[in-house]
Amino acid sequence: MSRLIRAYEGMLKARPMATKAVAGGTLALAGDVVAQRVKEGRPAVDARRAAAFTGFGVMWTGVFNHWWYGALAAALPGTGALVVASKLAAQHGLLNPLVYLPLFYSSQGVLLGLSREQSLSKAKAEYWSTLTRLWAIWLPASTIMFKFVPVRHQVLYTAGVSLGWNTLLSVMYRGGETDAAGAGDGSEGAGKRVAEG
Prior knowledge:
The protein is mainly alpha-helical. The chain has one domain (16-189). It has helices at residues 2-14, 16-39, 47-75, 81-111, 116-148, 151-175, 177-182. The longest helix has 33 residues, at 116-148. It is globular.
């Protein structure tokens, strides 16, 4: 295990963003595969859906969060209670509801071949239930991260927590596939998935 940690630290030092992008994409893929095979009982993995989750994990969890956590640490240095609360407010009061969730639903719609109207209908039906689930999981996880996890490891921590979150999101998102594809009312898909924020 210490070899693995040393190897990761070496890669992190040499190529921080690439290392974090690979970690984010790999764990996003794992979460979707677990959801498809174990939770949904699919005999084969839907490669297009897995690719959509992997791509979002690479770009959001890996690349964007590499920049975001660094910017938060520079703007709000330290781990005191007020600093952690300020980071939580920025992450969960602004970024996730106003950027992350809209970007997630629009990117998944494009990658999965949904029309703009279908993507919008899905987002409208699922937004609040997804956001409240996001807060239930990520507020405690982010509090621990901002208080105890060094900035260089925050993307890996997020990717690890995202394994569970992506599995949940994959199951939730899949639950609304029929409604989104059929432009139904979205009630069957309420509360579906997202990769973190």
